[in-house]
Fold this protein.
Amino acid sequence: MQANPPGEGDKRRLPMAADLFGDIEPTPREGWRDYVPGLVVAGAGTAAAGFIADHYHAPLTLMALLIGLALNFLSADARLHAGLGFASRALLRWGIVLIGVRVTFAQIVALGPTALLCVVVTVAAVIGSGVIAARRFGFSSAFGVLAGGAVAICGASAALAIATTLGERRINQGQLTLVLVGISAMSALALVLYPSLAQLMMLSDVKAGYMLGASIHDVAQTLGAGYAYSPGAGQNAAIVKLTRVALLAPVLGVIALFFKGEGSGPKAGVPWFVIGFFVLAGVNSLVPLPRMVTIGAEGLAGAMLATAVTATAIRSPMRQLMEGGARPLYVIASATLVALALATGAALWLVG
């Protein structure tokens, strides 16, 4: 029997997260002046995070996350919504594209076919574990696919795409909201804990990058954790993570086959920012870019990603997380642990 979490019938606003695909909320049609207040707040928070990171030699993305959470009360101000939305959506996408200047196809090949096969197996296993956990805690298989798919692929954006494919008859508003909130919270926790775990295991940059890229939910947190470990680990984490993101299209196709009927789903296609990432990587592989261009692009990408993390943290619906029931979070936690276990095992024994 399907258990419905509290707030099922509420018409509450969906939680705000790093919206890669533009499916959590539509891109606002506003003038540039409407973006200024939110961008100023996100920029100021990121600048403060940069100062602290430089002064105490701490990870920039982690400091941006903590400062953003400290400024979470500002999310109630409607004047900031447009700018914060732009920062957590557009800046994240373009930051990902610019990371391509630090990647070459030689590095992708160096990751190896074994690592790529492990990514595919991990995604399938995590979705399956979500279904098993959902049935164990009294939810439907569809809810397990939603929670497991969000963990396996790219967090909140994958959750919205999967929920659209499944349809409202199978996934109600309350369940979707709790998955979005739980994914945001656990991804933030992974950003803090997983790099330390990789340090304890003394993983190489390739192994740490694979572990972080194959296990963390949202793209922003994955990149933050990778670059917090080392620049090399950040590059590998980006490759692995974007491989997971690219798997969204075939996963939606498989879901549509298993859950026929309601739910039209988004068009299955590779997101433009993933294409942009690999295009820049291809250019850098064929014609090495001047060092000045590479350094400038790296700095701009770091600033964009940190600002996106700050804005995302400011917009996170912390109150909804506290109000929601715990059982849906158990399903997300189960899938998260499976993803971490498989990613760590593959990094230790199969990758590199």
